Amino acid sequence: MIDLTLDSMLVPALEGYKPVVGKKIEYTALNKGGLSTQQVVENIAMPFIKQRSILVEESATTSVIEFDASIMISGEDIIFTLDRGASPGIEIQIMCLNPTKIRYIGITKNSEGLHNTLTDELNAFALANYIWTGTGWFCSSAPGLGAIKEQFPGTSEPYKIYGGQWTELKLAGMYLRAAGGDARPYTEPMKVSVSGTSVIVDSLDTNSNSSLSTLAVGDLLIGGEEYRTVTAITGNTITINKEFTHSDITTILIGQNDQLQGHEHYYSHGGPDDAFDGVGVKAGILGIYTTSGIVTNGKNGNPRVGNETRGKNLTVRYWKRIA
What we know:
Layout: H1 37-44, E1 54-56, E2 60-61, E3 69-73, E4 78-81, E5 91-96, E6 100-109, E7 115-122, E8 126-132, E9 137-139, E10 148-151, H2 158-162, E11 166-168, E12 190-195, E13 198-201, H3 204-207, E14 220-223, E15 226-234, E16 237-240, E17 251-255, E18 263-267, E19 285-290, E20 293-296, E21 317-321
C-alpha cells in the first residue's frame, strides 16, 4: 500500500533539530515524533510545496489520496492502482520507465450506476497526469475529449502514449480528401433511420441536417465500416444500391465516389487472329477505355493521354478520445 494520506507528511523527529521559528513537538505515541502539516505551517513556517517522487518497483495500490504526488514506476510488469481522491482537484503525476498498467476509477458509469475501473497501458517513458474530479480520475495529460490522432505502422496506440480511453474510428479503407477543389462539400454526419435500401433522414428542423442539401446521386453513404452508393433522393428519403448489413445504423457520413475518366491505352496487335503480345506502343492500335468498355480506333468519354501514375498508400489507423 502506498500511503498518500497527510499522515505520511510528518516531519521526522530528527535528533538535535531546532526549527528557526516555533517549537518542536516532542515524540509521543500520538504524534510519532513528527509535526502534522498544520503544525508545520503554524510552528516553523515551512509548508510543503510538493513531496519528492515516490519510487514504485512492484505492483501496488494507493491509499485514499489526500495531496498532489509524483510517482516514478521502474519495475517490470507492474499494475499500479489509484484509490479515490480526498477532494476534487488532487493531481497525480506518473512517470513510467517500463510499460505499466495504470488502473483507476473512470468518469463513466456501468449499468448499476457505479463508476467503472479503467486501465491505461502506458509505454516506457510515458508521462501521465490524473486529476480527481470528485467522481473519478480524469487523465489530464491526454489530448482533449473528442481529439483524433492517427497511428502509423510501428507506432503505439494513443492510449499507450497519453493515457485516457480511445476508440478506433470506423473509416475502413477510406482515402481522406481535403475540402475544396473537386472534393464534395464538407458536411456534418446525418442522423438517420435505415429500412432496407431506404435511408430516412431525421427532421431537418430538429437535427440541422443541412448535409442533405448537398447530397447527390452517385455520392457515397458511410455507415460504420460499410459503404453504399446513392441511387435516388426523394424528400428526406435516400435510396441506396444495397442494404446495410447492420440495421442499427443511426448516423451516416457522406463520401464521394469518383467517376471513372476515359483514358487511352496503346497496345500492339499483329492481326485479327494474333493474341495480345504486350510489346511497346510502336505501330500499336489505339484503344480507348471508357466507362462502358474498350473502343478501338475511336474516342468516347473524356480521354486523357499521358504516363499513368497510380497512387501508393500506407494503411494508418485513426483514434478518437472518449474518456
